[in-house]
Amino acid sequence: MLITAREFIQVDSLESPFHFERHENHGVVSFNPLINEGQWGTVMEVGHEILALMESLPGQALIVDLSRLKYIGSPQVALMVRLWKSLKRFQGRMSVECPPGTVRDSLQTAGLRSLWQIVETRELALAAVGVEVEKISPTSYSPWNWFRVSSNWLLPRGTNRAG
Q1: What domain count does the chain have?
Q2: What pTM was computed for the model?
Q3: Is residue 87 assigned to a domain?
Q4: Which of 154, 156, 81 is nearest to 116 (CA)?
Q5: What proportion of the chain, given as a percentage, has pLDDT over 70?
Q6: Which helix (H) or strand (E) holds 26?
Q7: What angle do helix axes 74-88 and 40-54 make, rounded to 10 degrees?
Q8: Is the pLDDT of residue 151 over 70?
Q9: What separation in angstroms does the CA of 48 have from each of 11, 26, 81, 93, 151?
Q10: Could you give the 3-state DSSP secondary structure of residue 71?
Q11: 142 part of a folded domain
Q12: What is the bridge-based pairing of β-strands 27-31 and 18-22?
């Protein structure tokens, strides 16, 4: 099935070729498997859409999340290079979140590790572009913390929990 550029960009949610998140000091673009369905021109139009979203980023840091892909083709790799070049003009940084597998092997074979860091987790990807990640100390973590915090609103003001 051949998908036109307009249909390709306007598909909803997980059925879309990508998902873009704007954060306080960085952006995350996640490629969904549908991105591999598009022809060269269609993927380049998706690139226009992503570049337009990147213009409004407060910081010049971008994470490209490839964790949902089982395969990556030349148009998708060209799109990543295009995003990186756009960031590089403004001294921006880009890292790639990609678990071990075929996609990671393809990027390494293409020699792209020399352009950006390819890491396994979101935390490592954020660190690679200089975004601080708030860590929860293992001793302060409890699976019941969410309950204590969420049930706090049930108590009237000034109520003693122990009483």
Answers
A1: 1
A2: 0.74
A3: yes
A4: 81
A5: 73
A6: none
A7: 30
A8: no
A9: 16, 19, 13, 19, 45
A10: coil
A11: no
A12: antiparallel
